[in-house]
Amino acid sequence: MIPPFEKLRKILKLEITRKYDNRAVFGGFPLFANTWRTEAQTFAVNNETINQVYSHLASYGDYSAEERANAVEKILALLEESGEVPEAPVQNKKDETKDASSVVPIPETTGNASSPQPVRTSNEKTLKQLPIKPAKGEAQLGIYAPITHINMIGPKNAELYKKLGISTILDLLYYFPRRYVDFSKLEPINRLHYGDTVTIMATVMNTANRVARGGKLQLTETIVSDGTGSLRLTWFNQPWIEARLKPGTQIAASGKLDMYLGRLMMSNPEWELLDQEHLHTNRIVPVYSLTAGLSNKMLRKVMNTTVSFWAPRLDEFLPGTVLQDAHLMELQKAIQQIHFPDSQDSLTSAKRRLGFDEIFLLQLGVIRQKKNLQLIEGKRFPSDDSFLAQLISHLPYSLTQAQQRVLNEIRSDIDSGRALNRLIQGDVGSGKTVIAALAIAFITHAGSQAAYMAPTSILAEQQYQTILRLLTTGENPILQPDEVRLLIGDTSTSDKEDIRRELSDGSIKIIVGTHALLEDPIEFHDLQFVVIDEQHRFGVEQRAKLRSKGTNPHLLVMTATPIPRSLALTLYGDLDVSILDEMPAGRQPVETFVVHPLDRERVYRLIENQIQKGFQAFIICPLVELGENNSDENKAAVDEYERLQKEIFPNHKLGLLHGRMKPEEKDKVMSDFRDKKYDILVSTSVIEVGVDIPNATVMVIEGANRFGLAQLHQFRGRVGRGSQKSYCLLIPENEDDLENERLAVMAETNDGFVLAERDLQQRGPGDFLGTRQAGFMDLRMAQITDLSLIEEARKQAYQIFEIDPDLAMPEHQALLKMVNRFWQSGEGDIS
C-alpha cells in the first residue's frame, strides 16, 4: 500500500478505537484532509479516489457518530481497492540517455520563505551520479520513495536495510550514526606518538603479503613515507590490498598508533586514495549500527550520496521564530552535519537541533493530549472533611504530610467537574495504595464503582487485602466485604459469573484484578474511577480499554519507580503529577553494603542468624542457568539454588523463582514465600515489584554490577517493609567490580529519586520508559538528561500552542504535517 494510504489506514484504525471522536490525528480530520490530499496526489493514483476520500475527511467534523463510522468504513474500502503501489516497468538502456530532469524525481519544496527551493544549475550532478534510479512512468515519490530508488541499493540489499528499520529515503536520512571517530587530526609522521588517533597523508613505498600463524592468517604490510619519516601499516586477511597499494600510490590513512618491536605502526587503519573524496579518513567519521552483510564503508558511501542530494531538498518545518528564539541550526544543514560533520562544533549544533525536534514534536502532542483531557467532563464527587476524618480513623497509622498533600490534590480533581488524570510516583513503601484506597472511598460513598488493575495475580491479591482491611473493617465500615471483589486468572468460573453479574447491576463497588478486568464480558453499572498500579507494566491500549468501560472515569496511575524530573516533563506532560517523597514514620532505612566476592561466608552467617530469629531472605541471581559462554563468577538461579540447598542451608527450606516458569507457578512460589513456607527465595530479576513480604529482612544480590540503579533499588525495596532492621548485600562478580559506581551510590543513599537521577545519567532512559513510548516514534537523538533543551522545547511548544492550538495557520502547515507523521503510529491514549 502506498505511504499516504497506509498512513491514513493506521490513523482510521486508531479513530475506531477512540470511538470516532475526531482526535486520532492532530487538529482533527478536516484540518488533516488538505495535507493528506497533497501528499496522496504525488502518487500515481486515481484522482477520483483521492477526491472521494478527501470529501469524507473534510466533512468529518460535521458528521454524527453513526455517520463518522460509515465514513471510516467507506474510506477504508477505498484505500484497500486503490492503495497498491504501481510497479515500475523494467528500465531500457536507451532510457538512460534521456534528460535527467524528465526521469529523476526532484521534489518540489513547499516550505516557508526562509527555506529557499533548490535550483538546478549547469553544475548539477549528471544522471549517472544522481542517487535516484530513473523509473519510467513511476510517480514522484520524493523522500518517501523506497530505498531501492537509490543507485547503490538493489532489492537484495534493501532487505538488509530493512533489518535496520530503513525502508524509505527519509528513513535513511534519519538513520543517525551511533558514534563518531575523529580522524581530523592530521600529523606528519615524525610527530606521531603512541596511542594517538590521527590521520597521515603519505606515499606507498612498498606493499607485501605474507602468511602468519602457520598459514591461518594472511598479513598485508605496507610501508609509507611522507618525507619526515616512515610508518608501517598492517591489515589482516585482506590480501587484495596489495594490488591496490602499489609503490608511488598516495593515500590518507587513519587509525590509532600502536607499537611493535619498539616501532610505531597502525593496525587495520582506514585508508583512501588522496585523489578521492574522503569519507573514511581525514575527518570526523560516522560509525553506524549495522547488520550482517553491511559494512560501515558501504553505508557511508550510500549515506554520502543520499545526504548530498536530498538534505538540501528537505522542507524546514520549524517556524522561523522558533529557529531564532531557540538558536537552532536549519534542518537541511543539521541532517548534513549529523552524518558528515565539518567540526565538533557543527556536530554539537546538529545534535541539538535534531534532539530539539524530537522533544518539540513530542511536547506538542503531549500538550494537545493534556488540553483534550482537561476538556473531558468528569462526574463530580464532593468530599467533606467529616467523611475524610471517618476514613482516616480506620487507618492503623497517621498519614504523612506527602500523603495528605497528594490526597488533597485528588479530592480537588474529582470535585472539579473534569476527569482526573493524575500520576502518583512514590518510592517503595511510600503509601501509594493507601491514597488510592481513600480516593476510591469517595467514589463508592457516592454509589459509583471503581476498578483497580495490577499487573500480576499476587500483586492484585495483595492490594485487594489492603483495600478490604482499610474499607470493610472497624466499627463503622465504609463498605461490606462482598462489595469488594477480586478477579484474577485463578478465580473460579462460578465466581467469575457472579462477579460479572454483580458488576453489571452495581452490587460490587470495587473490583480489584489483573488483565482479566479487560475481558469483554466485564461490564460495569457505573464505573467512575480507574486505578492502574505499576502503570509501566500496561500498554496504552490496555489502559484505554479499561477506561472505555466507564463514561469518562477518573484515572489514577501509579508507579513505584521514581522518575527524574527531566524525564517526567518529557513523558508525562499530559498528566498531573503527584510525588510521595516522604516515608511513613517508623520505617527503617535498609542498611546496604558492598561485599567482596570472597566474603560470602559472612553473608551466609547473616542469613542464618536472621532465619534463627524467624525472618526470611532473598537471594537474587543474574541468570537462570549457566551456559557454556558464562564465566564461573556468574551466578545462575537454578545452579545456585541446588548448591545452597545441598551445601549451605541443608536444614532450611529454599524456593526457586525464574522467568521460564509459568505465571501461575511464579504466583504459587511467591504466595508460599509470603506464607513462610520457604526460609529463602532464590530468584532471578523477575521478582515482582510491589510484592509485600514484611517478614523478609535480607536481600542478597549476586552479580550486582550487572544491574542498573533503578533495578537494584527495586530489589532492595522487597525488604525493610516491616518494623525490623533489614539488610541489602551487593556482591559483584569479581574484585575489579568492587569500585562499581552504581554499587557505591546504592550504599550511600536509600532515596529513590536521587538514585533515579544517577541512573538516568549512567544508563539513559530505558529503565524508566516501560511501554510509555508506545504511541509515538522512539527518540533517536534527544538526550533525556539535557534538561535545558527539554525546557526550551516545552516553552516553544507552549508558545505555538497558545497562538495556534490546531496548527491551522498557513505558516504552521509544514509543522502540522510533521506532527502528524511523528504521532501517526499512535495507539490512542498515551496516558
Question: Which structural traits does this protein have?
Answer:
28 helices, Rossmann fold, globular, 831 residues, seven-stranded parallel beta sheet, single chain, six-stranded parallel beta sheet, OB fold (Dihydrolipoamide Acetyltransferase, E2P), 21 strands, alpha/beta
Describe the structure.
The chain is an alpha/beta fold. Among the domains are: 3-82, no CATH class; 185-282, OB fold (Dihydrolipoamide Acetyltransferase, E2P) (Beta Barrel); 385-416 and 430-559, Rossmann fold, CATH 3.40.50; 591-749, P-loop containing nucleotide triphosphate hydrolases (Rossmann fold). It contains 28 helices and 21 strands. The strands form 4 sheets. A 7-stranded parallel β-sheet has the order 11-12-10-13-14-9-15, with helices on both faces. Strand 20, helix 23 (709-716) and strand 21 form a beta-alpha-beta unit. Helix 12 crosses helix 27 (787-803), helix 12 (344-375) crosses helix 28 and helix 14 (401-414) runs parallel beside helix 15. The chain is globular. The two termini are 31 Å apart. Mean pLDDT is 81; it is low at 85-140, 628-633, 769-777 and 825-831.
* CATH T-level fold name of the domain at 385-416 and 430-559: Rossmann fold
Name given to the CATH homologous superfamily of the domain at 385-416 and 430-559: P-loop containing nucleotide triphosphate hydrolases
Number of strands: 21
Overall, the morphology is globular
Which stretches of 5+ consecutive residues score pLDDT under 50?
85-140, 628-633, 769-777, 825-831
Name the CATH architecture of the domain at 385-416 and 430-559: 3-Layer(aba) Sandwich
